[in-house]
Amino acid sequence: MTEPKLVAPPNILGSEREAGVSAHFALELRLDPELAAFIPPLDPSDRAGLEASLLAEGCRDPLVVWAETDLLIDGYNRYEICRVHRIPFRAIELSFADREAVKRWMIANQLARRNLSPKRVSYLRGKQYLLEKRQGKRNDLTSGQFDQKLATAQRLAEDYGVSEKTIRRESKWAADVDEISAVLGSAVRTQLLSRRAKLTAADARELAKVARRSKADAQALWVALTDRFRPSKPRKPRREGANYKPGEGCEYYARLSQETWQRLNRYAEDAGAATLDGAIARLLDRAQQTVPDLG
């Protein structure tokens, strides 16, 4: 890989020069849909934090461009925000042999950051395992498929200080998330990897299995899974007396002590009343017969 160097495209608009380094806010960078979608986008809250930081402090870290193709490979969020707010930014070039090498660098670059959610870290490590496993198959290694799979898991487990079982489990998580995203869209992937996500790996496995069969069924299951963790609305306290519900009429509510409730149920049973409403009606009739008419 060559040393990083500053991008210096011709006909730059609105360029500034500071300490001998070009900073641009109108630089048009080439975007590749596959590479742009390879790394999950930020959560809305994280993106809002990044935007606030860029507005307050400017773009301190340079964007990264693949030298051989002029494609942007790091800094998609910063690029979009800087373009909207006309914030100057820098770009550097890095050289790579091929697209797979670019993807490996993108994963390693993301994993070097400290502000990733645990689910996103697992997803990226899983993608790295899957990527390197595919690369090993293409290289036609003489060690055999199982040995290559084992070697990849062992090496990544040592690199990240986790077990081989964790790496293989994370590869299944990454594959499930990508399969779900391909059917339900990238926004679902962002939600699955967010800090607030409560869906489990088992949920993702079931959702991916359904997504392979039917998009409509997958959408329905996604709604059901997310509704499971949506906080319910607090109930309004019920008032004693008549409570009117539009379209339903009135319901009557009274607070009773436990002793009164038990006595009322015993009376209903002794009087042969089918309902508590019937038992109360009988009590009122008896009370009316025993109380003298004062009118």
Structure, explained:
It contains 12 helices and 8 strands. With 295 residues, the chain is an alpha+beta fold. Helix 5 crosses helix 7, helix 7 (164-184) packs antiparallel against helix 8 (186-192) and helix 11 (258-271) packs across helix 12 (276-290).
Largest sheet: 4 strands, mixed
Total beta strand runs: 8
Strand percentage lies at 5-15%
Distance between the termini: 106 Å
Order of helices and strands: EEEHHEEHEHHHHHHHEEHH
The geometry reads as: elongated
Radius of gyration: 32 Å
Summarize the amount of helix as a percent range. Answer: 55-70%
Uncertain runs: 1-22
Q: State the strand order across the main sheet.
A: 1-6-4-5
Mean pLDDT: 80
The structure class reads alpha+beta
By DSSP (H or I, 4+ residues per run), the number of helices equals: 12
What's a quick, concise take on this entry?
The chain has helices spanning 33-38, 44-57, 76-85, 99-111, 118-138, 145-160, 164-184, 186-192, 201-213, 215-228, 258-271, 276-290, and strands at 5-6, 16-18, 21-23, 63-66, 71-74, 91-94, 241-245, 249-253. The protein is of the alpha+beta class and 295 residues long. The protein starts with a strand and ends in a 5-residue tail after the last helix.
How would you describe this structure in keywords?
295 residues, four-stranded mixed sheet, alpha+beta, single chain, 12 helices, 8 strands, 56% helix
How would the blueprint of this fold be written?
Elements: E1 5-6, E2 16-18, E3 21-23, H1 33-38, H2 44-57, E4 63-66, E5 71-74, H3 76-85, E6 91-94, H4 99-111, H5 118-138, H6 145-160, H7 164-184, H8 186-192, H9 201-213, H10 215-228, E7 241-245, E8 249-253, H11 258-271, H12 276-290
Parallel strand pairs: 4-6
Antiparallel strand pairs: 1-6, 2-3, 4-5, 7-8
Helix pairs in contact: 2-3, 4-5, 5-6, 5-7, 6-7, 7-8, 7-9, 9-10, 11-12
